[in-house]
Hints:
Layout: E1 4-10, H1 13-26, E2 32-38, H2 43-53, E3 59-60, H3 70-88, E4 92-96, H4 100-111, E5 115-121, H5 134-142, E6 147-150, H6 153-161, E7 169-171, H7 175-184, E8 206-210, H8 220-234, E9 239-243, H9 248-258, E10 264-267, H10 272-281, E11 284-287, H11 290-295, E12 303-305, H12 313-318, E13 321-323, H13 328-340, H14 342-349, H15 360-371
Parallel strand pairs: 1-2, 1-4, 2-3, 4-5, 5-6, 6-7, 8-9, 8-11, 9-10, 11-12, 12-13
Helix pairs in contact: 1-2, 1-7, 1-15, 3-4, 4-5, 8-9, 8-13
Amino acid sequence: MKTLRVASVVGTRPEAIKMVPVLRELRKHPQIEATLISTAQHREMLDQVFGLFGIEPNIDLDVMKPNQSLNLIVERAVHGLDEALGTLAPDVLLVQGDTTTAFVAALAGFHRRIEVGHVEAGLRSNNRYNPYPEEMNRRLISGVVAQYFGHNQESYLNLIREGIAEQDIYLTGNTVVDCLMGVASTAKGYLAKHLPSTFHLNGKRMILITAHRRENHNGPIGELCEAVVEMAREMPELSFLYPVHMNPKVRETVFPLLSGLPNVALIEPLPYCAFVEAMATSHLILTDSGGVQEEAPSLGKPVLVLRETTERPEGVSAGSAKIIGTKRERIVAETLSLLRNRSEYEQMAACRSPYGDGRAAERTVQGILHHFGMATRPDAFLPQTTRSLETVDQTSLAWTV
C-alpha cells in the first residue's frame, strides 16, 4: 500500500481549532503518515488547544517573541520551516486560513517543491488592509497552492475568478463547524471556572465581546470600549463578558477603559470549551473575529461584526451577522436596537448556518487522497444541507475533551 506523507502546520489558536478535525481524520487512514509542525506564533493560546485535545506537535519551532513584528515572525518561521520540511520531506503540506504562519508555510513548501493544500481557501474581502494582514496572506497563499479546500460556493467563485482550475478546488464546508459540533454537547460547566466571583449572570442577558484584529488596534478598540461603557451604564440589567486577547496593544486599551464596571467582566482568553459555552450562553456577540462569525450561527447567536468589511459575506446574506463598523455611536445604536427589537433578534437567531455540516474534515482528507489518485472525489458541501446543532444527532459527533 502506498503511504502518503502529509504534514500540517499551525501557529495560532484559531488555526489549531480548525485543524483539529483534519488531524483526527488524517489519523484514521492507514495509508497516510501524518505529522504536525507548530510555529507557536501564539504560544499560550495555542498550547491551550493542544492541551484540550491531547495533541502534541512532532516539531515545535517556538517562534514567539514579545511584541514581535510581522517581519520577524516571517524571518524566524521560514528558517525553521525550511529545516523541518527538509527533514520530513512530505508529499503534501497543509496550511489553514490566512495567518502569517500559513503564508510562510505555504511559501516554504513551494520553495521545497512540496504540494501545498490550503484549508479554508478562497476567502476574500477585496480590501488589502482589511483584515490586515490576513487578506494579503490568503491571496499570496493562493498563488502557490496545488489543492484548494474552500468552504462554500462563494469561496469557489472567488477562486474561479482568479483563474484557479476547477478540478483543484474541493468544496468541503468549514472545519470550525466540525470542531464546534464535536465539543458543543460536552461544553458544560467550563465557563463558571473562569468568571470573577463578583460576576453573576443570574438569568441576565449576556453580551459576549471579542476584539483583537491588528487593523482595530489604534482607535477602533477604544471606540468599542467607550460603547460598552455607555451601554453598561444605560442598561445595568445587561452583563458584558470580554475575554481580552493577550496582545499588549489590546490590553493597554481595554483595561483602563472598562475596569471597575460592575456588569462588565474582563477575563483572560478562554479555553475553547469554555468559549463555546460562553457563545452558547450569550444573548448576542460583538466581535471582529472571522471564526466567531462562522461558529455563532450554529449556536443560534446573532453576530454584530466590528469591521468595515468581511470575507464571510454569506453570514451577512443569510441574516445571521450584520456589519456595524467600529464607531462608538453605531455600535451602541445597533446593539441596543437588536436588544429591544424582539422580532429582529429572533429572525437573526433563527438563521441556518451557511458554513458547514460537520463533514468538512472528512471531505478535506478525501480530497487529498483524490488528488493523489487514492480515492474518489468527495461530494461538494452545499449550504442548503446545513443542519443546526438542534437537529444534529450529537451522540455521533461528540468528542472526549
